[in-house]
User: Fold this.
Amino acid sequence: MTEPLTHILVLVEDGAVAFCHYENPSFHASAKPRWMAEKRLRGIVRHAESQSVAVTFVLGNTKPPARIERLMQRVPHAKIVPLALGDVYPDAILVLDSEDGDAFAQLSPDSRRNVILRLARRDVAKGADLCASLAGRYGRLSLHLRGIEYFAPSDLAVYREELARLGSMLGKLYSGGDRFEINVLTDRMMLREMRNCDAGVKHVTVSPNGECYICPAFVHDGEPIGRFDGAAGLAFKRIAGLDLSHGPLCTRCDAFHCKRCVYLSRKLTEEYNVPSEQQCAIAHIEREASRLLLKDLGKVEPFRRMPRIAELNYQDPIELINGPPLEPAAP
Ligand code: SF4
Assistant:
């Protein structure tokens, strides 16, 4: 059965900030933003209202003109904004890139705010310090790695060490009574089933020119799946195999916090529902770091009441299907 859409992501301009594992080459462009046409935006707002679908507007570095602002205000929505607009929209989800780390100290703290930190591969060794500089100042911090497609075993080893360091810092803060979430360490503690990105299943993305995509990553690296047309509304083709039930590995896996990023899967394995080795390894490093942190927080509330996370004897769920990797042959 096809799941109904719960929300639509609207890229209000062509330089809309990238907020997870992809890049938007137009984000840093110096050219004037190309805004979504008012007529189209008005149509999307009406469509969302009539279909009871939530809307998230994704903005770039420039504050939208008043006419666009007025249209956005017509519907309850969330906004995702880059550092440049962080103070303009204090209620918006703020996206920070690890390259902007020097500016983090100047950011105003807000315990109600959700912040996304996109950590570049070359900055993984700074991951714990960057997270620690934001942790406790916001209600929730979501860490998203960039360049996962180029991750080598050495990058994974550094990421494992950084999460261990971060877990130890968090353990002290939690023991002292602080409460905030960091997706890669606390989500798995609270989940009892998969909670993935669900791009193309529960949400789709409309680009400024009205094309519809599985998610924003496919706008620059993929094909449209449909269009938003003022008269016909949102018309798109469902891509078979995107949902969890079609994932032969994911249905056996309990790294419940994993994004199951279908963009990376498609890019690295050419299948939407078959994750790459890097994605599985990263999700299991995070799962193990969450397990160890939860164990260390044994007597601290509310962690004391959370079911322990089982220790695994494998690092990649492919072993559940293929068995453990072969030992190298003796010389
Ligand atoms: S599939 Fe989801 S997690 Fe992956 S790039 Fe798209 S929005 Fe981000």
Residues 113 and 138 are 5 Å apart (CA to CA). The mean pLDDT is 93. The two ends are 54 Å apart (CA to CA). The chain has one domain: 7-238.
